[in-house]
Amino acid sequence: MKAAYFQDGKVLVGEQPDPVPGKGQALVRTHSCGLCASDVHFLHGGRNIIDLSRRLGGPYAALDFAKPFVPGHEYVGEVLDYGPGSKRTVKAGQRVTSVPIMRTGGSHAVIGYSHECPGGFGELMLLDEDMIIEIPSDLDDDFAAMVEPLAVGLEHARRGRPEKDDAALVLGCGAIGLGVIAGLKLMGVAPIVAADFHEGRREMALKMGAHIAVDPREISPYAPLPDFGNRQVNVIYECVGLPGMLQQIVEAAPFDGRIVMGGYCMEEEHLFVFAAQNKRLNIQFAGGEEPQDMELALRSIADGSIDIAPWLGTRIGLGEVESALSGMSGPSAPIRTVVDPRTL
Asked: What are 70-105's pLDDT values in tens digits?
């Protein structure tokens, strides 16, 4: 199959072996796959991620950074066939997505970060048939590819156990932060305050449901909110992923506040427990999405309750993956670029 793959910190395009499905595995032809910031992190810091997994426990311990692997975990594709002895839960020809985890056929892997389970930057994938979710026939491929990244934000949002009388703050308005805002809006939380350095991301946050968007260099996002009875935020979502963020939030958070750590930070974080204890803070670490989050994301995109269209930028072929990944970090970059691995 044709694929854009990573090898030793480089993006290459060429032929990779066709995956062969085992029991419980569906063979899928990829239609669309979103490019994620975590792909960029892995491209440049993959050795560290693998080492951390081997030392501290993690899903990437079996990956060899020097050998080719096909990334891409935000995908939609068409079921072609199944491995022997499978239940064949979805008919061939149906489009599907899934939580990017493989737990059948003798494999336990993160799809896209595995030598056995290539991701959506390739023409063919293997998906766990117990994880696949059918895509409605009238939903566009690129919209369907946004189910997984939106689901991550929805998972983070519910981890804070928000209630309608809470005031929420979302720090960082990339895809995860925007998904958190969308999830909070679905749950009826108000007000929702968004904070980001970049004007374009603040505007996007307002489109996703934030009531207030501030530049934290100019206005403290923890300040009383005049338009909401001078209330202050009490549920805080960290979606930045930089060291030092947790301590900053602890110092600014109110008594009995709740903090959800969703940013993906791979450096040590220093924390004065004294400050957190004095405020009796609850600190929750969010992880990846679960099937319930994927199903909610799909329903919300399909029925229009979450408008994902502003996330989408250009659609590219395999030959443009390298340049698209290198341009993802800029403030003017789209939330998501989508690759079609069927085209070069």
From this structure: 999 999 999 999 999 999 999 999 999 999 999 987
Contact call for residues 90 and 39 (beta carbons, < 8 A): no
pLDDT band at 332, cuts 50/70/90?
confident
- CATH of the structural domain 150-285, one choice from 3.30.750.24, 1.10.150.530, 3.40.50.720, 1.10.10.10: 3.40.50.720
Asked if CATH classification 1.10.287.70 holds for the domain at 2-146+308-339, the reply, yes or no, is: no
What is the model's pLDDT at position 129?
96
User: Rounded to whole angstroms, how far apart are CA atoms 330 and 183?
Assistant: 25
For the chain, how many helices (H) and strands (E)? 9, 17
Can you read off the two tokens belonging to residue 164?
């309608």
Burial (CB count within 10 angstroms: exposed 0-12, middle 13-18, buried 19+), residue 290: middle
What are the DSSP calls for 149-198, one per residue? HHHHHHHHHHHT---TT--EEEE--SHHHHHHHHHHHHTT---EEEE-S-
